[in-house]
Write a sequence for this structure.
């Protein structure tokens, strides 16, 4: 029997990784298109075109991507440990809680 708590924690970590990656992609997609087509980037989030450096925005995007991939990898490792681990099997008889089997 596997430790369901580790599997649940791993699933939550992977979900956060997917959410972070999708939110970062939606925020930085416009800068990637501007950099490929125009070589100049403008931020329109305030309603006025503000000139920003394309290299800084792509660097920020790569940091979010690395964090997202790191979270996905960590969640995968935690899920693997939960499925493969012997966390529930290594409990000593004196540490068990609940009804005792005769």
């Amino acid at each position: 029997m596997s430790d369901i708590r580790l599997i649940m924690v791993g699933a939550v970590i992977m979900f956060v990784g997917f959410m972070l990656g999708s939110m970062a992609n939606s925020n930085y997609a416009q800068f990637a298109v501007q950099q490929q087509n125009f070589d100049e980037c403008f931020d329109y989030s305030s309603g006025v075109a503000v000139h920003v450096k394309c290299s800084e925005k792509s660097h920020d995007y790569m940091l979010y991507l690395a964090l997202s991939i790191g979270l996905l990898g960590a969640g995968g490792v935690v899920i693997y440990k939960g499925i493969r681990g012997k966390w529930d099997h290594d409990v000593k008889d004196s540490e068990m809680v609940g009804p005792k089997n005769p």
